[in-house]
Amino acid sequence: MTVRDCFDLPMTGVDAEGARGYENYVGEYLSYGAQLRDLFSHADAAPESAMLNAHAAALHLAFEGAEGWANAAPYIARMNEAAIGASERERLFCAAVNAWSRRDFIAALDELEELTVRWPADLCALKWGQYHAFNLGDQPALLRFAERARVVHEGRPYVHGMISFALEQNHRLGEAEEEGLKAVEIAIDDAWAHHAVAHVMLTEHRAADGVRWLDHCAHTWERKGVFIRDHNWWHAAVFKLELGQLDEALAIYDARLWGSWPEFPQEQIGAVSMLWRLELRGVDVGDRWAPVVSEARKRAGEHLLPFHDIHYLYALARAGEPAEAEAFLASIEGHARSQFGPARAAWGEACLPAARGVLALARGDDETAAAHLASALPELGRIGGSHAQRHLFAEAFEAATAQGASWPARTG
User: Fold this and answer.
1) What's the distance, CA 140 to chain centroid?
2) What is the pTM of this model?
3) 48: which of 110, 251, 322, 411 lies 20 to 30 Å off by Cα?
4) Helix spans in 154-302 (H)
5) d(CA 103, CA 80)
6) Thinking of the domain 1-136, which architecture would CATH place it in?
7) pLDDT per residue of the chain (412 residues) written in tens, 0 to 9
8) 3-state DSSP call for residue 115?
9) Spatial separation of the C-alpha atoms in residues 93 and 111, rounded to whole Å
10) Any residues with CB less than 8 A from the CB of 117 and at least 6 apart, and which?
11) CATH class for domain 154-256?
């Protein structure tokens, strides 16, 4: 059975109820809503729908941990069976998910590029394309997807937030802020637009403006999913750090950045990043590292994203068991040697020197840390993450090269 989806594109293998489920998912996905899991029941009820099962698999893979790969497997199996009778557009999306499941993120991005050039009306595919472009550090691709969205979806809720963030990551700050403000005029709860404008204000050293902006937007976040809620509060804490309001930043950490979903890799990354930043400014974070390290050590050996691995490694080196971080670094080194092409460059030329640097940093060897971080910094765009997130490594380098730099004693 073929129906038309909310973008007026054909969907195979679904009935009207399945199409409504997909439309609800689209709304939740684009708005970072809290009800994304509802898609799984619709996919379970429609084994002949390649698209519903492909998007269900994508949601699991976007967990960014080994559990996500395991949970995606049955949806991928159903997706591939259903893809035989699917449309060409649907098969391209399935191909992207298959590449993603093989950890071939570049191939996944390429499939989504082709799909959205030919069918730019597929706003979900455009958003997934931006997801992969971001993780690969491919800022031009991030903007290409945004411009396709603009052509077809100008004025639609949540589209201008996509455009805003892409412009910001491409250093077009004035345009990015304009698009972000337009996005919020269209949909006050566009949390990705809130985030994009916060990036502009941070880059322009407008911390006081950033605090006021996020205070204005924060009332909409409680109805959002964990990722964007945590991450926007992370930005609020970063602004507090910039203003020297360290106690307030620590209070945001305790109230908002840890404990909602400790098993979620993005929550782990945000926690590591904030505790590290706090300590760089001389804040005693007490025993807050312990639960973060407990979760981070479960990620050792996954090697899904280099940006993540560097954060896990720092947590283990800062507060893990003796020799734990060294074993993880050796595992990263082996993984880097096994890669090819751009992935080998990302892991070998960017991740590895950064990893060696942060390990030395946590051990108090500032000279070694500075040497490795100096090698890593020009290449760090390859590992994904935003400019604001990666700035932590520049801060660490500056601290390691500062006269009389000192680091917290290991607690492990």
Assistant:
1) 17
2) 0.96
3) 110
4) 159-169, 173-186, 191-203, 207-217, 226-242, 246-252, 265-280, 289-296
5) 17
6) Alpha Horseshoe (1.25)
7) 789 999 999 999 999 999 999 999 999 999 999 999 999 999 999 999 999 999 999 999 999 999 999 999 999 999 999 999 999 999 999 999 999 999 999 999 999 999 999 999 999 999 999 999 999 999 999 999 999 999 999 999 999 999 999 999 999 999 999 999 999 999 999 999 999 999 999 999 999 999 999 999 999 999 999 999 999 999 999 999 999 999 999 999 999 999 999 999 999 999 999 999 999 999 999 999 999 999 999 998 899 999 999 999 999 999 999 899 999 999 999 999 999 999 999 999 999 999 999 999 999 999 999 999 999 999 999 999 999 999 999 999 999 998 545 455 433 3
8) helix
9) 7
10) 148
11) mainly alpha
Q: Do 1-136 and 154-256 show the same overall fold? A: yes
**AA identity, residue 304:** L
Six-digit token string for 237: 């804490």
Whole-angstrom distance, CA of residue 86 vs CA of residue 81 = 10
Encoded tokens for 197: 């404008």
Residue reference for tokens 């080194």? 333
Q: Which two tokens stand for residue 103?
A: 């950890």
| 341's tokens | 């092409």
Domain boundaries, the chain: 1-136, 154-256, 258-412
Assigned token pair, 209: 């403006």
